[in-house]
Amino acid sequence: MADYSGISRLRRLSELLEHEADEDDDMSSESVPVSAVGVCVGGIADEPMDDEEEDADKCIECRHQRSEVFCEQCHDHFCRLCYGGQHRKGNRRHHTFQEILRAPETEPKAIEATNAVPVPATSSFRKYNEGDDDSSDESDDNSRPSRFRGSSSRNICSLMGSFFLGGMRPLESAKPTTINSNMRERAKFIPVRLTYEERKRLRTLEAALNVCHYTDKIDTAAALNPTKRTRLQLQEIAGFLSGLVVSMDYKAGQTLLDEKQFEPLERFFGELFELGRRYKIMNPEKMRGEYGSMMYLLQDAVSPAIQDLLGFSPFKPLKTAYTVLESHDALAVLDHPLIETATMVVAPEGKSRAKIQAQIKAKDAAIREITRTFMSTKLSMEDIQQCLYSIADNNYHLYFERDPIDKMIQLLQHHFPAELSANDDQKYSLAIVSGSDGARLSHSHTRQYHYVLQSLTLWREIAHDMFRLWCLTDEDLLSGAAPYQLTDTGQGLHRIQQSPLISRAMHVILHTTQERLDYWVGSSVIHLGDKNVPNALMFIDKYAQVGHILRPIVKTIDEIDKLAEKTLELKKFIDTTFGGTETLKKDILVDFFREAFDGSGADNFFDAGSCIDGRLTSAWNWCSRLHTKKFFPIFKLAGFVGFDGKFG
Fold first, then answer.
1. pLDDT category, 8, cuts 50, 70, 90?
2. 76-78 and 97-99: which strand pairing?
3. Same domain, 436 and 555
4. How would you classify the pairing of strands 97-99 and 69-71?
5. What is the pLDDT of residue 153?
6. Domains in the chain, number
7. What is the overall mean pLDDT for the chain?
8. Which of 241, 276, 310 is the last residue of a domain?
9. At what angle do helices 546-566 and 612-624 cross, to 10 degrees?
10. Distance (Å, rounded) from C-alpha 210 to C-alpha 471?
């Protein structure tokens, strides 16, 4: 029997594309459900399991990770991540546990399971944060979180931390140019640098996205009706795709407009959007507005309803250094002893010209040696060098993004003691009081010192793993597994969507950071998939701004001594107004460490506080009030132009 499904689909597609956008009186006025999602973490709650189906080998909370410890008081088995969250404070902090021993041959399976980044149960993280309140952190204990007895070299947290963070190094021994020893794991999340031909196509895509107003038409109250919304989505997506084809090949575009068959161009669209996503991950400061429009358009295009009407999906997995080498059976490139030298960052700070030249020569020689060793008829010299340059780009990004955070931690530890003695200047106490100067938290000097230190440390580990978080964000947004809800969050309509992969990664980062520090101050709530942080795109954009916040402050601190040496007038101004360069530095730092971490910045009391995302909100609030500070002219003299990634 002949198959007429394709003809039927094309007929429906043509009818929808040519249908006038008039309102139909008989059209159902029932809109998309807009109930607020009240979950603080992105995850999908597991369905209750029948007794006979429940796997005793799994964690009782997340039901995804293998159980590793047995709590003697709870009489339940947990993975280490869930146990640490459940027993972080309160009476459970004093519980004891036993290691669950297994035969050595089962361990590789546990390692393999961590690579899959399973979806956590939402309920487990609700219990993890039970009793936490974003608006206050008085209920949190100032004690070290529960430590696990015995060797932790093979537990879930250590393995996930190693895969997600490239290994947690002590802060004092961390170097900007340190390369992760597990290069194969890193390479899976390092996008390949764009070629010349790809850059030409990227310019066309950027130009099209720059004039595209997709979300202005789709994410509005007028488009809440399901039927109307689907028709508008299809019309806008088909129009945008047609425009791309016409701008690149007029004849092919003319054919597409006449026949309205997008399936033959599936590969073209997949590659075009993939290189746009890949370019953004490697250059977070680029495509700021265009990237959001592209991801929301793709998010709708990969939905089942639109895919059925278009006949194809424009999604294509990201092209990474690992996938390129794997396709040519050349993963041994990542194991070469010279890989670290070939991809190192040649930073000029504190080095002589001769040393810089020597490092450049060593890097070039390593690249030539690796290329000569693995070049073949299947794997060209350009492909090998493209992968090596991409890994080097990743290393430079880590150096560039982590450096200001490392310097801020050093400034905190250098200028402010952890505990303020009676002989110390009380003017530079970090203590804050709720209700004073807009603060919504009350901390003593010591408590605030640790609160700032742990926030900066957490930001550093997020920056260290930013490429992987970008890739997980991309997968969460375009997987289609969790549909979004268009919801009024109080700041307009936003797409609230659960993000299990990025949520799991963030909880691993948070848990490992908590284990490293002396004790944890404040809430451990991670807002993701709720009205505070609606989806993974909002999350990744939020933490991509950390460097933009800290870099101007570090730059200004470094320039103060140079300004004083530049002219006598500037030195006199600094001495008479601020009491000298050192006093000026401490004035800037104490103001930032107090007011940028005081729980302020939200529209109401309940959305502010000490939660993980509230710390960054407070920092942005300080940035918005910088022009009112006494030392703002010093920022301008040092070249400050704004917190947008640019610095004069």
1. low
2. unpaired
3. yes
4. antiparallel
5. 34
6. 2
7. 78
8. 310
9. 40
10. 23
pLDDT digits (tens, 9 = 90+) for 588-619: 999 999 999 998 887 665 666 788 888 898 99
CA distance 217 to 538: 20
Residue 101 in tokens:
């021993």
Collapsing DSSP to helix, strand or coil, 377 comes out as: coil
Tell me how far apart the alpha carbons of residues 588 and 550 are, in angstroms, rounded to a whole number: 12
Residue with tokens 């500037």: 570
Burial class of 301 by CB neighbour count within 10 A (0 to 12, 13 to 18, 19+): buried
429 and 282 within one domain: no
Tokens 């809430």 sit on residue: 523
Identify the domain containing residue 300 by its residue range: 196-310
For the segment 339-347, the average pLDDT, to the nearest whole number, is 90
Last residue of a domain, one of 310, 334, 355: 310
The answer to whether the CB of 310 falls within 8 A of the CB of 298 is: no
Instruction: State how far the Cα of 450 lies from the Cα of 412, in Å rounded to an integer.
Output: 10
171 in any annotated domain:
no
Helix (H) or strand (E) holding 69: strand 69-71
The CA angle 157-158-164, to the nearest 5 degrees, is 85
In a domain, 20, yes or no: no
Q: Cα-flanking dihedrals φ and ψ of residue 482, to 5°?
A: -120, 105
**Band of the pLDDT at 267, cuts 50, 70, 90?**
very high
Task: Tell which residue, 310, 292, 288, has the closest CA to residue 233.
Answer: 310
pLDDT > 90: percent of the chain: 40
Check pLDDT > 80 for residue 502. Answer: yes
More confident residue, 585 or 349: 585
Residue that the structure tokens 């999908």 belong to? 44
Tell me, letter by letter, the H, E, C secondary structure of 551-608.
HHHHHHHHHHHHHHHHCHHHHHHHHHHHCCHHHHHHHHHHHHHHHCCCCCCCCCCCCC
Q: Are residues 435 and 287 in the same domain?
A: no
**45-49, 166-170, 274-278, range with greatest mean pLDDT:** 274-278
pTM above 0.85, yes or no: no
498: amino acid identity, one letter: Q
In a domain, 122, yes or no: no
Residue 506 lies in a domain: no
